């Protein structure tokens, strides 16, 4: 009976840790998308066009993701990270002034749809939960974040 109790206890601890992991990773992805969406293209802004600088947005998203999840530049976990496997950016889209707003972004592969009212960023990343015990089956998520340029 004690073995069953320990197995149930290990399962409960693993499930709670998995929930903490998904919440922390989702917050990191949301922050990365928000930071990327705020990278205004200053040259276009001088001409009165509100647009996101694609180069700055990509670099900023990776920097925020790396910082908030304690990853290195290649999105591999560092010693301080609660993750053990690298984070994979599956989709990174910048929706700029070249489309009509409101614009509906749809990604069939990840079954994700969002409507943007102004330029924005969509970020989808794959995160694996580092199981503490072998009781819980492997858990992986495709986490999605979207943010619009605030002006």
TrEMBL record:
Protein name: Flp pilus-assembly TadE/G-like protein
Organism of derivation: Cohnella cellulosilytica
């Amino acid at each position: 009976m004690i073995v069953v109790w320990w197995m149930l206890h290990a399962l409960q601890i693993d499930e709670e840790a998995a929930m903490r992991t998904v919440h922390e990773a989702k917050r990191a992805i949301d922050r990365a998308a928000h930071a990327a969406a705020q990278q205004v293209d200053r040259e276009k802004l001088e001409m009165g066009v509100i647009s996101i600088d694609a180069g700055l947005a990509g670099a900023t998203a990776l920097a925020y993701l790396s910082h908030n999840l304690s990853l290195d530049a290649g999105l591999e976990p560092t010693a301080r990270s609660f993750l053990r496997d690298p984070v994979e950016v599956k989709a990174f889209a910048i929706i700029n002034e070249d489309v009509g707003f409101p614009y509906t972004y749809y990604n069939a592969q990840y079954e994700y749809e969002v409507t943007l009212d102004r330029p924005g960023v969509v970020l989808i990343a794959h995160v694996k939960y580092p199981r503490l015990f072998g009781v819980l089956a492997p858990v992986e998520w495709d986490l999605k974040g979207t943010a619009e340029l605030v002006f």
